[in-house]
Amino acid sequence: MIKAVTFLGAAAFTLAGHAGAQSAVPAGDAAAGAKRTQMCVGCHGILGWRTAFPEVYKVPKLGGQHEAYIVKALQEYKSGERTHPSMRAIAASLSDREMADLAAYYSAPAATTASK
Amino acid sequence: MKTIAVSLAAALVFSTGVSSAADLAAGQAKVKEICQACHGMDGNSSNADYPRLGGQYPDYMAKALRDYKSGARKNAIMLGFAQGLTRQDIDNVAAYYASQSAVLVTRH
Question: Residue A45 belongs to a domain with what CATH number?
C-alpha cells in the first residue's frame, strides 16, 4: 500500500513536472494585457509611427501577430539578443507574466480591430 | 531650385528607407521561391515560430532583412535566406508582403 501511494505520488510529481515544462511561459490573459499597454501605445498604437533612433523606420504592427512570437521578441530584447535601445529598456522592465498578457492582447486576430 | 528639388526627392527616398522602385511582381516571385514555405504567400503563417508578415510596414521588414543579412539580428535560418537577397530583392519582398494587408493591424 505504501509502495502504491509512493508510486502514485511519483507519478503525480512526474506529471506536474511535465506540465510545468510545457508551460514555462505562463498562459497570457488578454484582458490583463489590455490594461498594460501604457508603454506600448505611444509607438505601436499609432498608425504609421516611426522610430527616431537609432534608425528611422515604422514601428511594426503587432495586432494579429503570433502570441509566442511576441513573447519571444520581448524576451530577446530583454536578454539583449535584439538590440533596439527603447525596446530593450521596456522589455527589461516586464515580467514573464506581463509579456504573456501583452502577447495575448496583441495577438488577437486582426479582424477584431478596425484600423489597418 | 533644381538643387532643392533634388534634395527633396532624396529626402523622400531616404525618409522611407525603402527604394521607391520596389517591384511587387518581382517581390511576389521571390516570396514564392524563398519565403512562402514558412511565412506563407499571404504572410499569414500558421506556425508561431515564423512571424506573420502580411500588411507589416515594408521599411520595418526591409530593416529586419538587412539586419539578418549583416548579422546584426541573429537568426541562423534567416541569416541563410537574407544572404541570398540583394538590396533590391529585400525592398521587393518587403513591398509584396506589405501589400498583403489582411493579416496584421495597428492595435491600441
Answer: 1.10.760.10
- pTM tops 0.90: no
Picking from A33, A22, A39, A36, the residue whose alpha carbon sits closest to that of residue A107 is: A33
Report helix angle B76-83 to B58-70, nearest 10.
100
Length of chain A: 116
Asked if the C-beta of B28 comes within 8 angstroms of chain A's C-beta atoms, the answer is: no
Looking at A45-106, list the stretches that DSSP marks H as alpha helix, in order from N- to C-terminal side.
Answer: 67-79, 85-92, 96-106
Instruction: List C-alpha distances in Å: A101 to A35, A39, A66, B73.
Output: 9, 14, 13, 25
Contact B52, B103 (CB under 8 A): yes
Grid coordinates representing A38?
Answer: 501604457
The dihedrals phi and psi of A63, each to the nearest 5 degrees, come to -65, 120
The 10s digit of each residue's pLDDT in B38-65 is 999 999 999 999 999 999 999 999 999 9
Mean per-residue pLDDT over chain A, rounded: 83
Flag whether A21 is in a domain.
no
Q: Which domains are assigned to chain B? A: 19-99 (1.10.760.10)
Q: In this complex, do B52 and A64 lie within 8 Å of one another by their Cβ atoms?
A: yes
On chain B, the residues whose CB falls within 8 A of the CB of A56 are 15, 17
**Interface ipTM:** 0.80
